[in-house]
Design a protein that fits this description.
Layout: H1 2-24, E1 29-31, E2 37-39, E3 48-52, H2 64-72, E4 76-80, H3 86-94, E5 98-101, H4 125-140, E6 145-148, H5 150-158, E7 163-164, H6 167-170, E8 189-193, H7 198-203, E9 207-210, E10 217-218, E11 225-230, E12 236-241, E13 257-260, H8 264-269, H9 273-288
Parallel strand pairs: 3-4, 3-5, 5-6, 6-13
Antiparallel strand pairs: 1-2, 7-10, 8-9, 8-11, 11-12, 12-13
Helix pairs in contact: 3-4, 4-5
């Protein structure tokens, strides 16, 4: 009886060891603390994409369209709150792989050497300070940048360009409605894209319907930027960096910058695979770093 008892114990021990070995070799599983199994994380090396937020005072805000677009494109969204401490911003950016400059209020025209015109809309001084610090830190660290709406405008200003403060009053012959009332996932105007440009390559077309929620726009592009898309009235709708042009810190801009005036994140969140490509391109650029 004793012999049978010992044989039974040995058999059970061998079976348990075999089970542990098998579990440790199951694809998609890992053995964690105390031998507990945990699911593997296939997206554990997905790039971290920082998204600038809006707000002021005690509030930081951002539409979910931005984070959803990043997630759908294969990145991990990280919200960057409105900060005015350049050291903290720089430390945060070191942990990120790319940056999205989001939309928001008008930019104070003093940043590009002009006085405010009557048509200027609401400005947000803390946000202006934050965006300028964020852009300078991102350029110093050579992070890939996707700039959207206000982000496109403020990036152009930081790099040395200017803006139309108010399209209706400064370009009265435009006749185009740049501030739609329709939902954000509805295209209300058509833009023409420069053939051979990166945006044309990404979207696979040289003409596309977009949404429009702005009354300011790029006037004079900064050095090192190439305008690549226009609305029907000639208003700038996109630009990209010239690869060999230097940034303010003397480093080649390369393919770091892509900027659009419209809101591709709204279409991406709604399930449009074409506009999602803009975010997939950013994720791919982040991975290449």
């Amino acid at each position: 009886m004793k012999r049978l008892f010992f044989l039974l114990i040995i058999t059970l021990l061998l079976t348990a060891c075999a089970t542990v070995r098998t579990a440790s070799n199951v694809p998609g599983r890992t053995i964690g603390v105390n031998g507990q199994k945990s699911a593997a994380h296939p997206a554990q090396d997905a790039p971290l994409i920082g998204i600038s937020c809006g707000g002021s005072g005690t509030m930081t805000t951002l539409k979910t369209t931005y984070s959803d677009a990043v997630r759908l494109a294969g990145g991990v969204p990280v919200l960057i709150p409105v900060l005015r401490d350049s050291t903290t911003l720089s430390e945060l950016l070191r942990r990120l792989d790319a940056v999205i400059l989001s939309g928001g209020e008008d930019i104070d025209p003093r940043y590009y050497g002009e006085e405010a015109l009557p048509g200027l809309g609401e400005v947000n001084a803390p946000r202006d300070t934050f965006d300028v610090l964020l852009i300078r830190a991102a350029l110093r660290q050579e992070k890939p940048i996707l700039a959207i709406c206000r982000g496109e405008q403020v990036l152009n200003v930081v790099l040395g360009g200017t803006l139309w403060q108010d399209i209706p009053s400064q370009i009265p012959a435009s006749g185009l409605r740049h501030r739609q009332t329709e939902p954000a996932a509805v295209a209300t105007q058509t833009v023409t894209i420069e053939p051979g440009s990166r945006l044309a390559h990404i979207l696979g077309t040289t003409q596309i319907g977009v949404n429009s929620f702005h009354h300011q726009a790029v006037k004079d592009p900064a050095p090192g930027l190439l305008i690549t898309a226009w609305a029907e009235d000639g208003v700038v709708e996109a630009y990209e960096s010239l690869p060999t042009a230097p940034d303010p810190y003397g480093k080649p801009l390369g393919r770091r910058i892509l900027a659009v005036q419209f809101h591709p994140e709204a279409f991406a969140q709604a399930g449009d695979p074409v506009f999602l490509k803009i975010f997939q391109d950013l994720v791919a650029r982040a991975r290449q770093r």
